Automatic annotation (TrEMBL):
SMART domains tied to this protein: AAA
MF terms (GO), sorted A to Z: ATP binding
Keyword match Nucleotide-binding: yes
One GO term (biological process): regulation of DNA-templated transcription
Keyword entries, A-Z: ATP-binding, Nucleotide-binding
Protein name (record): AAA family ATPase
Domain Sigma-54 factor interaction: from-to ranges: 335-560
Superkingdom as given in the UniProt entry: Bacteria
Organism: Brevibacillus agri
PROSITE patterns on file: SIGMA54_INTERACT_2, SIGMA54_INTERACT_4
Length: 673
């Protein structure tokens, strides 16, 4: 936790209430501490942000004395829980109602809040200690505590403590690295509240939205497109960024089906099915990661909130890297790693590079076979000649044939006038890299065999024989020997190709290279981020079926999603953490559904709710754990295991142990909370 947020409040009750709210949103991403204005406030230089609870100038002065000019101090925008407004709506219009608070400023602020959201049918008068309670008052609005004794005939409307505006939470959260996923959950809870208010007031979402200036500013504070739909696919909320992107010409969007949005087909899964994995989509030549979150009230499904994150720039860099001409762009220096299996493959490749024979690179997807092909060419005597690469699986048979061998004028309808040289001709004097060779059809296999044997090509539709001098490097992730045995691949071609076979090791056989690969990938993009030890542990434990390509994708995802210098577990794609957690929970002999583990998490959760850290001794002596025979030392070992799974976090002795968001999620998953 690099950031600290400070709250300075006027009264201790308000302080306790708001601290709890701030902590629920910001921890564990940043530390939140608070002081009542009458307390001795220490020097707070080094903190990220200070919130004060009212506009009262003396509060600002107190805060400014504690922090340097560079630290922003803002007044928390606060608002009552929307459902409490219901009682107010039942008071006859025009009634004079005192609004009670502990000072004239705060009483006026509450009135301001009410008027801002157009609850203006009453005649509000500020009321505070020292004001006189008039006989005619039938109602009184209080904030949790009546600040003066009230006569018995008065109907008291308790608006509770005013909550922190979600706008302030989101805005500050983005500055201190609260992940988007958490922000989205909060937002959807807020939308649930709004939808309930709409129902209560008998109005439509659109009207509530119009009424509620707070909601408007909340959505504008979110700089990425946000769209919410109800379960019938009707748009209930949309912010300006999303309107601009998806429907700039529509004047009314709320209440319309989401199918009015541009490219709605791409969004459809996110508005229709729960549990969609985040996906990359393109709109107006911009790339976005889309994710959706389901809106629920207890078990009732109310719809989805969908957020998009612009990743165009990252994608552009990636495409640039992928665009290669007829030259080899990588050398052995680009192949990162120092593990034994990798060094062995590099050493072998360097030796084989010098000779002119066909090389067959084998290995799983994304292990770096293409990278090796480039490097071998660069290391060979042909390095000044062309390097031509083709993915044999990416083209239909007839196209692949004409790409490889070229065609003559009029060879087929649409053939280019004058014909076209094939890749073998283009690779003359250099190297041709045939990726995914295991996927070529029997007809192409025959033609290829002839080129390899005779070093000659005949263009499609032609008769002339052309001699070519090029070295072939082929690659496959298939087991070609099995394919030969099954009759799917010609044996003679296999032996022609596999003159010099090189096996590229899978990433899980060289996990020690992972930190280096990550660093290198970040460095290439000029990004400086580090990884929390738990994340690194998870990455080392994963089985990386997609190898380095998958690793790079995970890193790209994490750096896109994370707004914090240290990447944490919450920044990893869900499917990865879920897979790892499933695997670990099976392997680690701490089955999560084990009631004993859930009891521990539940115990920690109670302390989390009460906002208190807890030590092992105290935890072991909670009634449930004590009844289950937990000793302090057994608990210590189990907590360590739960910490490895990212479900709890242990701080110093003073900080005690606390449950993490993943731990809370786990309790939810098993229906404990
Ligand atoms: N040792 C390595 N060091 C750095 N980057 C690597 C390494 N190996 C692979 N990569 C990167 O991983 C990605 C996948 O590599 P590459 O395309 O060469 O794999 P491949 O085995 O040819 O995959 P496929 O079989 O799916 O075609 C590329 O972005 C590549 O630059």
């Amino acid at each position: 936790m690099d950031h600290t947020i400070v709250l300075i409040a006027k009264g201790t009750d308000t302080l306790a209430f708001l601290l709890k709210e701030l902590r629920a949103y910001f921890e564990p991403y940043c530390k939140v501490i608070g002081f009542a204005s009458h307390e001795q406030i220490p020097d707070l230089s080094g903190v990220s942000h200070v919130f004060i609870t009212t506009r009262a100038p003396e509060l600002y002065t107190i805060a400014r004395q504690a922090v340097p000019e560079t630290v922003p101090i803002t007044v928390l925008n606060r608002f009552f829980e929307l459902r409490k407004i219901k009682a107010l709506m039942q008071i006859p219009p025009g009634t004079t109602v005192p609004v009670m608070n502990n000072s004239p400023v705060t009483a006026q602020e509450v009135i301001q809040n009410l008027l801002e959201v157009k609850i203006d049918h009453l005649n509000y008068v500020p009321f505070h200690p020292g004001s006189t309670f008039e006989e005619r008052f039938r109602y009184a609005i209080i904030m949790s505590i009546p600040d003066v004794p009230l006569p018995p005939h008065v109907e008291v409307i308790d608006l509770g403590f005013r909550k922190i505006s979600i706008h302030d939470l989101i805005d500050t959260g983005r500055k201190v690295g609260v992940p988007i996923e958490w922000e989205r959950q909060y937002l959807s809870a807020f939308i649930v509240e709004m939808s309930e208010l709409a129902k209560m007031l008998g109005t439509s979402y659109a009207e509530v939205q119009k009424l509620n200036s707070q909601l408007q500013s909340t959505f504008q504070a979110v700089k990425d497109p946000v769209i919410a739909c109800n379960e019938d696919g009707l748009i209930t909320f949309i912010n300006d960024v999303a309107v601009e992107l998806f429907c700039p010409h529509e004047s009314v969007v709320i209440g319309k089906p989401y199918t009015i949005l541009k490219e709605h087909g791409l969004l459809a899964p996110f508005f229709e099915q729960e549990g969609q994995e985040d996906a990359l989509i393109a709109i107006d030549q911009r790339q976005f990661i889309v994710s959706s979150h389901s809106i629920r009230r207890s078990h009732e499904h109310l719809g989805f909130v969908c957020t998009l994150k612009d990743v165009t720039e990252i994608q552009r860099l990636r495409t640039q890297l992928a665009l290669r001409g007829h030259t080899a762009t990588y050398s052995f220096a680009d192949i990162k790693g120092s593990s034994q299996p990798l060094l062995h493959a590099i050493e072998l490749s360097k030796k084989m590079a010098k000779n002119n024979q066909t090389i067959l690179l084998t290995g799983e997807n994304g292990t770096g076979k293409e990278l090796f092909a480039h490097a071998i060419h660069q290391h060979s005597l042909r390095k000044n000649g062309p390097f031509v690469a083709i993915n044999c699986a990416s083209l239909p048979e007839n196209l692949l044939e004409s790409e490889l061998f070229g065609y003559e004028d009029g060879a087929f309808t649409g053939a280019r006038k004058g014909g076209k040289p094939g890749l073998f001709e283009q690779a003359d004097g250099g190297t041709i890299f045939l990726d995914e060779i295991g996927d070529i059809s029997p007809a192409i296999q025959v033609k290829l065999l002839r080129v390899l044997q005779e070093k000659q090509v005949i263009r499609v539709g032609g008769t002339g024989i052309l001699s070519v001098d090029c070295r072939v490097i082929a690659a496959t992730n298939r087991n070609l020997e099995d394919a030969v045995r099954d009759g799917a691949f010609r044996e003679d071609l296999f032996y022609r190709l596999a003159v010099l076979p090189i096996e590229i090791p899978a990433l899980r056989e060289r996990t020690s290279d992972i930190p280096l690969l990550i660093d290198d990938h970040l460095k290439q993009q000029g990004i400086r981020k580090s990884w929390s030890p738990e994340v690194m542990e998870l990455l080392l434990a994963h089985d990386w079926r997609g190898n380095i390509r998958e690793l790079k994708n995970v890193v790209d995802y994490a750096i896109t999603v994370s707004e914090h210098p240290v990447i944490g577990i919450a920044d990893l794609p869900k499917r990865l953490t879920e897979r790892i957690f499933q695997k670990q929970s099976a392997a680690a002999a701490v089955p999560l559904e084990d009631e004993r583990n859930l009891d521990i998490l539940l115990g920690l959760y109670q302390y989390y709710l009460a906002n208190k850290p807890v030590g092992r001794y105290q935890l072991a002596h909670t009634p449930v754990l004590q009844a289950n025979g937990w000793t302090e030392s057994a608990l210590r070992n189990r907590l360590k295991q739960l910490e490895q799974l990212g479900l709890v976090r242990s701080g110093t002795t003073r900080q005690g142990t606390s449950i993490t968001r993943d731990g809370i999620e786990m309790l939810r998953k098993y229906g404990k909370i």
